[in-house]
UniProtKB/TrEMBL annotation:
Keyword terms of this UniProt record: Decarboxylase, Lyase, Pyrimidine biosynthesis
Annotated protein name in UniProt: Orotidine 5'-phosphate decarboxylase
Alphabetized GO MF terms: orotidine-5'-phosphate decarboxylase activity
Organism (species): Thermoproteus tenax (strain ATCC 35583 / DSM 2078 / JCM 9277 / NBRC 100435 / Kra 1)
GO biological process: 'de novo' pyrimidine nucleobase biosynthetic process; 'de novo' UMP biosynthetic process
Enzyme class, spelled out: lyase
Family matches, as SUPFAM superfamilies: Ribulose-phoshate binding barrel
Gene Ontology cellular-component annotations: cytosol
UniProt key word Zinc-finger: no
Active site: 56, 58, 61
Enzyme Commission code: 4.1.1.23
UniProt binding sites for substrate: 9, 30
InterPro entries according to UniProt: Aldolase_TIM, OMPdecase, OMPdeCOase_dom, RibuloseP-bd_barrel
Length: 199
């Protein structure tokens, strides 16, 4: 198993084919709006039979609504879902939620993310930008191994395979770079998660 989560931002047919191809090679898959808008919960049900699934709808609602959505995706087979760090103050600790602490692109999180990091310890883990390894290193320093760190931004967004892992992430989230060419998975051959062995 390579420390990689494949972001299946593509159509369902291609997503299923990539998931079949890489199921033994990777730690899991990330499903977002693309597949959910195409086919509802069905992609979550089908792909979670092939591996662990994180659902990334970047939730940012009141706890009542967030909990209902998380319940639905977990019932469909996902381990967990991603929520915006901005709503962390209203959420109860929840091992089914990854907290987004900083984006891979410029956002207002750039001024706030340090405030959010300690809170991520109450959740399954933090989502931190793999194309900014110094951020990942700082998040790991604060969290220790108390929570997972998963990092997008590798390949299409400029991060190099392994950059985020070497900075302290457990898993790199990779979309376009692997969807275009699944054999690139060999670029993660010698890498291991920093703290956690499952997503
Ligand atoms: O294709 P690429 O590897 O750039 O895809 C990155 C994936 O990670 C996308 O699914 C995107 O929604 C997600 N993501 C991100 N930056 C964040 C959080 C999630 O790129 N901060």
């Amino acid at each position: 198993m390579r420390p990689v989560i494949v972001a299946l931002d593509t159509d369902l047919k291609r997503a299923l084919s990539i998931a079949e191809q890489l199921r033994e090679e990777v730690a899991g898959f990330k499903i977002g709006w693309d597949l959910v808008l195409e086919a509802g919960l069905d992609p979550i049900r089908r792909i979670s039979k092939l591996g662990q699934v994180i659902v990334d709808l970047k939730l940012a609602d009141i706890p009542y609504v967030v909990n209902r959505v998380v319940n639905k995706v977990v019932e469909a087979g996902a381990c967990c879902a991603i929520a915006h760090g901005l709503i962390a103050p209203s959420l109860e600790p929840d091992q089914r939620i990854y907290l987004l602490v900083r984006m891979t692109t410029p956002t207002l999180y750039d001024d706030l993310w340090r405030q959010l990091v300690p809170t991520a310890g109450k959740f399954r883990g933090a989502v931190a930008p793999g194309n900014a390894p110094s951020t990942v290193a700082e998040v790991r320093k604060v969290l220790g191994c108390s929570a997972r760190i998963i990092s997008p931004g590798i390949g299409a967004q400029g991060g190099k395979p392994g950059d985020a892992i070497r900075a302290g992430a457990d898993f790199e989230i990779v979309g376009r770079y692997l969807i275009e060419e699944p054999s690139r998975i060999s670029q993660w051959d010698k890498l291991k998660p920093t703290c956690w062995n499952s997503i």
